[in-house]
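LOG
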Amino acid sequence: MSKDIVKNYSNELKVELDELSTPLITLLDTLANTGFTEKEFNEQPIEWLEMMHMLLSKNKHIASFYIGNNDGSAYLIRSMYTEADKLRYAAPDTTVLMLEINLNNGQQRSIYFDQQMRRIGSKRSHSNYYDPRTRDWFKNAKGDMDIHMVEPYAFYFSRRIGITYSRMLKNKQGVIAVDFTLGSLTDIIQDLEYSENSKVLLLTASKRIISSNQELELINGEKLFTAEELEIAEFLPDFNDIKIEETLFSTIFWQDQNWELVVTPLEISSLDVLYLVNFVAYKDLLYGSSILRNELIVISLITVLISFLIILATTEKIAKPLSYLTKSVENIQRFSFKRKVYKKSNINDINALNEAMNSMENVLVDFFQNLRDIARSTESEQLSTSMVTQAKAMLACDICQLFVNSPADRAAFRITANSDAFAPFNVQTLYDHNNAIFTNSIHELDRNDSHLVFLDSDCTRGFIIPLLNRADVLVGVLVIGFNNNISTYSRDRIHFVREFLAFNEIVLEQLEQEHEQRALFHSFVEMMATSVDIKSPYTGAHCQRVPQITKMIAKAAEQDQQVFDDFSLTEDGWEELLIAAWLHDCGKVTTPDYVMDKATKLETIYDRIHEVRMRYEVLKRDADISYWKAVAQGQDKLSAKAVCDEQKAALENEFEFIAQCNIGHEDLQPESIARLEKIARRTWQRTLPDNIGLSQEALDKKDSARQVLPSTEPLLADKQAHLYSWQKSNSLASQSKREFTLTKPEYQHNRGELHNLRVTLGTLTAEERYNVNDHSIQTYLMLDQLPYPEHLKNVPLIAGSHHEKLNGNGYPLKMKGEEIPLGGRMIAIADIFEALTTAERPYKKANTLNQSLIIMASMVKNGELDANLFELFITQGIYQQYADEYLAESQRDKVDICAIKAVLK
């Protein structure tokens, strides 16, 4: 019988300790398996803080709760139960919860929260580089997903002796753990002692004593005494021989009396076991049982009697109101919030509960309404209006106004939202007079402040709530005004409004940053376009003017009620179109300057007509030399002179013809090409080597064999050195997701003299024409690499399609008809019109306004440009708006609309 009593008592102790550890083990498993990470520590949502405070306050044997990450950072949270704890960690007086964030570079931050989980202070410091990865609790838990217990040790921060339970996180990126102090375990065991004489001890597998119901000196410095040091080891069995499910009993004689010794193993995890050791004196066994029985009987009778009387007296009075409250709670659980009047009860406590529930639900209604408003806010003005509307409703104030500043000047405020049609408050004067009050979380305006702020309004009392970004920089201020005294209702809710504004501060900061980033992006786009214009002195402001013409066309299309009746652009649509217009020629940054500005056929970096001229100068000198040789040999001077003059005249005539072909203003006819080829067969003699003083690239193109001088060469040559193969960098086009249709010539550059002079129209060879047209491919390649937001995803297609033609003969994708986006067709008209009317191209004269429109009309007739857009361009006078602002007076001739329409027929 004595064994049964002791066994029951030991089982009771085991159950109590199991009830202590099991919820914590379950908590660790739950948090580890539900994605609990350091995110909650960094963002500190109030719901999470309240949950942690509840867990710690209801389980005060927990010293702390923390996470150690694989990168060496650690996060710890603890409750502030006593003044000693607050003093130890330098916490404010109202602190109930402290969060410590320890980064792996030694930086440490302590954040303090009060009962309402409001942040009331913080402290930054530098620790001695606390690295959780070096701690036993972290190492033990890294091997599996089981719960592990570390042998008692001195905690790093508090230096108190305790035990740590730990477990690896589900994502294996760290370890989650809780600490128990030995003092808390001792309190539990003392509460469960069998009698004053009984001795209860909790030992580790190594027989270190971690707690007892006796006033024993268990700790020696920062180490625990062992059973051997306390002279009880001789009574204890070998723990390795005890099975987990077994309870070991033995009778011993100790301290002049008989004792029942009971050893019960407590399995913490598959690898961790504690041992509960009970020494119960035989004389106390039956006495304790009688006392316990009598106490239980008395307590049970009293409890039943009181419960019966209470239930009988109050059931009818509280049943109905409680049922109503139950339904309200169920609605809250389903996130179904609504404002309503609660039913009154004859019981004051229930009425108080009614008021609390009503207040809570109204707060939740306001809170979630604000979240919905924030979610829909895309501009700071929308958010500002929502903030003042919500704040006024929550506080029942008379006027609410929001003022903000800008990153350029944080000391200058402007009003962005006003709850009523009243003049703005004088916040600027208050800030200039006493900006210290703008550092308070909430500032109640006194009589002097009110006079400065409210000025001529009816408000006499109020609050100022500064708005801070995440860097604690003042970004705005909410001013709340009351015509009369501030009610208790308003005072009770002002702190909730302060927390409510915290969400808005983050969104306001985000919108401000988005505005700055968008402004930066637009400036970068315009800078990119301007750099293309600056690259060539002849393109003028092409990339800057095309967006202006495009904008005029798009506005006219929006106003059109016939062909473009369904066309309209949102703010995002305008941004997409204009960015595409600004960037339509961005690929020209890869086009060589001498190709973009090539004014004559032989021009590269310089005009090689001068080399040809020098060869003719040599030939003319050769004619003079031949003349003098003939005279020296006895020929008649007059006949020799006539021959010389005839040769020189022929040379001058040939050079003049070559020079005329070099200009490229007119089509080169077949007979002119034949004459060029004939002239090219004329030879001249080079006496100097042409393979010295050259770059390595030029040398690589020369024959390495020793030159034989003098060398007879054709007057106009197409040499191997004039041919330039494609560079590997151009293979990027093969990596594009688009199928470009531009036919690539055999060589990237062909600078052959005869090859260039034989160009039939203009100044560009086929290779150079490809290099110019290739800018549209490069535009795609450049723009396709950028990560666009959803509303700008079509920028590459719109920008890159401005050289496509409706008949499918354009480039680089040979799109046709409706395949070409409407924005691309608008940019095409703007691009061609600006290019035709510009006066700064080196290879052509500027066209007049009428000439430009007739050329564009022929392009429309040939199926190259959009006829409807060109009709809009003409009928809405867009060409004239542009001409009046940008064209020279000599170009602004009278436009013959009849002649233009005749071309279109």
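LOG (cont.) second protein
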Amino acid sequence: MKKSVLYFLLLLFTQMCFAQSNLLWQGYFSYNEIKDLSESTSAVFAASENALFSKNIATSQIKTTNTVDGLSGETISALYYSATFNKTIVGYENGLIIVINEADGSMLNVVDIINKQLPSNIKKINHFMEFEGVAYVSCDFGIVQFNLATMQFGDTYFIGTNGAEIMVNQTTLFNGFVYAATNSGIKRADISNKNLVDFSQWETIAAGNWSGVATLGTDLFAVNAAGYIHKYDADANLFMGYLALSSPALDMRATTGYLLVTTLNSIYIYNSQMAMVRQISTNQITERTPSFNCATIIGDAIFIGTTENGLITTSLSSATTFENTTPIGPSRNNIFALEATTSSLWTVYGDYSADYNPYPLDSYGISKFSATGWLNIPYEEVLGAQSMTRITVNPSNENEVYASSFFSGLLKIEDDTPTILYNQTNSGLESLTFVGPNYIDIRVNGTAFDKSGNLWVTTSRIKNGLKVFKSNGQWQSYAMDAILDSAIDNNFGTIAIDKNGTKWLSTSEDGVIGFNESNNVFKKITTGPDTGNLPVSNVNVVAVDSRNQLWIGTTKGLRVLRNVGSFQTEDQMTTDPIIILDDNLAQELLYEQFITDIVVDGANNKWIGTADSGLFLVSPNGQETKYHFTINNSPLPSNVINDIDINSATGEVFIATAKGLVSFKGTATAPNDDLSNAFVYPNPVRPEYQGTVKIAGLLDKAHIKITDIEGNLVHETISEGGTIEWDTTAFGKHKVASGVYMIFISAQDGVETKVKKVMIIR
């Protein structure tokens, strides 16, 4: 009992902290992959991969809901809006149900199906059907009752042969019976029967694999897996073949007066007499040819859910007008790499496997987020560049951007328009040759600009793996076959350039390679106590911090080169693990973790992404773990972290995961050169505000004192980076009273000072 109480308190505390911390999080989700639709008389509700949105028909107002609001990052498989209870029910492939109270936005996570002693691969939720306050939940194992008033589960019906699990795709109510479309026939039972847990109470009406069943007025229709619509004959108690579709049905549903059947390329709309009112084909939508997934009707408006193009709206009365009503976001949720500047964020979606295999090749575009919103550059406009895996902005000219293709070369983007695809025909780039001389495969990955404006480029699996695209437009190559054990087997990850101009290259086979063109010397850091002390030779990422240390992320843990200057003085550089104390036991920080990215913020903290354990923020020396974000304690939609970057002006940390992009609004901004742009926000601090006061635009190691109007000191600190936080307490003891507070800022040497004010209203 004591353990249960403690667990409840811990869970409550975690949920409260989660809710408060959401003030610091922002979601940037794609809503293009529509999984399901539902409707009320005044709004349409759409479920994308792991987020929701709704559109009010009268006002056209769109509301979005994602993991920052409390949704799970898991994949949504079913959606239902209950007008009776004003609740939206979200079903997931893993069996989770989330109930959203539309009146106040509160959410309830229901994990009963997840906790059932069943194989995890048969817990998917397929459909919701409401009757007398109970939702009948169709799952891959059977049917579950869920009471929408009490939020409690009722009976579970295993209706297969001898009570076996059976995939139920959809249910409907017809003439007092509940009908279930399953992969082993259409089953029915009396809805008033109190003993439906007994499988023998369920009668098989039709054999075979059925994908849907729906009631239209006084008729009952079902569609089988082949796309053959059947009509129920009550006198004969069987389903009669009615209409054969040209392809399998993905969705069938009845709305007021209409039956809608959706296939990959067509939507068929029938009235209550089963006369076709309209057929919509993908080739009618001229801007792009979408793939359909589901559709519904509200009044005269038809809403079409697609697999890649979001929600498309048309009408029964217009055969040619189509409008995309999807919330603006990135093209996809699975962002592989990103780069943030002070004014924009660029993302790419191509990828490769853990062993750097880009196949099957991806044909996706590029996305940019700025003050004007999202700009999505489709694949048709990127000059054929496939599997783009990195993106780099010229720090001297933010209108010049380069996207690395791990198959096609290097794409140049100017003023948001792709202009040149550099490949083997027009640049110093080379194709790998071991497949054969006629096969073109140019695997560009890590790129970085040096202080002179030259772009350094790595190309995997060739002899001249390192290249530089100089600011004067010339290319130069550097042979690496002498330093690499096998150049044609090696793949490159990221590049980091230190203050001395040394290039640090992460490799898949040879650890870290250092190179400086001033003396044309390559040096290697690899495994073994005498050759670099890396845990493995497969290095994903390298990052140079503000103390001139090289942080190295491998597939089996973390290492640090204590001084990048050792490249100049030592023939063999050696790295060290970071040893921390946990319960008074010494252990290695991030021992054997697959590290995907390392980013250094303005305060020299390290944001470290992992392949399956979420995101870590550690102190400058790694001895303190300040945050460990996972799907369980934060809005991260996935523990698979693909990439991280930071807006140095705002401190916003962008986190690309396998299931969506979120950001954490940190305070570690880059330090300013002077105090001329120092500012305080929010100001004034109003009673409803629950966050901290930020003082930004600071010098590094600036001294900050905060006093009340009478000169009494209430807070004092020294900045690390460009921003500090104040929790509006007097030295952490109690909240300060209403009033004006003076903020005195001085540089470390005392030469430059600044005074700001903030008003606090309790």
